[in-house]
Each structure stands twice: as C-alpha cells, then as structure tokens.
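Today's session is about reading a structure prediction critically. Students often jump straight to the picture, but the first step is always the sequence itself: look for stretches that repeat, for charged clusters, for runs of hydrophobic residues. Only then move on to the predicted structure, which in these notes is written as discrete structure tokens rather than atom positions. Here is the chain we will use throughout the hour.
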Amino acid sequence: MSGATVGFATLGCRLNQVESRELRALVEQAGFRAVEDGEPAQVYVVNTCTVTARAEVSDRQAIRRARRANPDARVVVTGCWAQTSADEVAREAGVDLVVGNADKERLPALLDEILEGPRPRAPRVEVGDLRGARLADVDPRPRALGRSRAFLKIQDGCQHRCAFCIVPRARGASRSLEPKLVADQVRLLVEAGRSEVTLTGIDLGHYGADLVPRT
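Below is the predicted structure for this chain, in token form.
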C-alpha cells in the first residue's frame, strides 16, 4: 500500500537503533512515508529487545502504546524478542505481524500484504532461520543531516555460546559486511555531511572472521 504512513518504536541496544534507521530507509524506498515520534501512523513497527526480562516488559509496553495511538493501525513486531519468542509475541493483544531478524529486509513487501484487505483474525508470523543470513547492503545515509555523527553496522551475530546469553539465538552466528561495502557506505555518509562515522556491531572483535579471505 504505497503511501501508507509508518511509525517506528525502537528498544534496546545501539544496533537496534541502526537497524530501525535501515528499516525506515527500506520502507521509504518502497513508497511508504515514515513519520516522526508522536505522529499518527497506519502501521507501527516495534523493534524489540530480549536481553533481560525487563526488556520484554518494555517491549510489551511499546506494543500497547502503538495500539492506543491508533486502534485501527497494523502493529508489526520485529527484533530480538520476535526472533526468539515468536509465539509469545503473537499472543500479545493487537499484534498483526511478527517478523524475525532474518526477515527484516522483507518488511516493505510484508507491509503491503498485511495492509491489503481486512485485519486477519490471527497474527502472521514470519520468523526464518538465521543460519546463512547475510548483512544487507543498504544505503546508510540518514534522512536528517543535522547531526555530525553516524552509526554504521558492519557486523552482526556472535560466535560465543555462553550459557547465560540469548544473543546467539536472537542474532545468529557472527557475520561481517565486506570491507569494500564498508568503505562505500562510509563514503556515502561523508558525502551526506557526516564528519564522524562510528562502526557498530554485536561483537566487533569477530569482524572479518567469516569472510574469505579472512579480514
């Protein structure tokens, strides 16, 4: 549904902030109109965290706020909580679509589908396997150029399997953006007026370990 308005709520780590920016760029490129915080929207995308029990409380609160903002809007839940606990998320009142981390790049097409026709009785769940996932080569230039610093995701996932940590299940194995793509994206950010670029990821110490040749 080209032209529909989309609002974003982002919880958790800095990487989630970067990914929400990427999702915003994707939906705008597909013809949707992203709105600022506090503006009414036809779709609300809640990008969730699941590192702690408190994080999931905040996720639920964000979903309820979206529903209160516009009871007729479609509510989409994505991010780490969606990836690790899709069935639990789908049971939340008012959720229309659950999208895992492996399927975020499909968001524009999925929004088109859920906006066609009446609201379904049961939430749709699109949570794929993170094995084999790759980092997307998206245009990193922010919509607003007023700030001097930009964040660029060059790594995702984690190779460690700590008993206390849910990150590998939420994010998958460590994977890296190829150096040429990193350089290209930094150049785009500089050309867009950013004087400082911060490279970010889940475990930057493993950057390049998955590339051939290893970087």
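Discussion point for the tutorial: The two ends are 42 Å apart (CA to CA).
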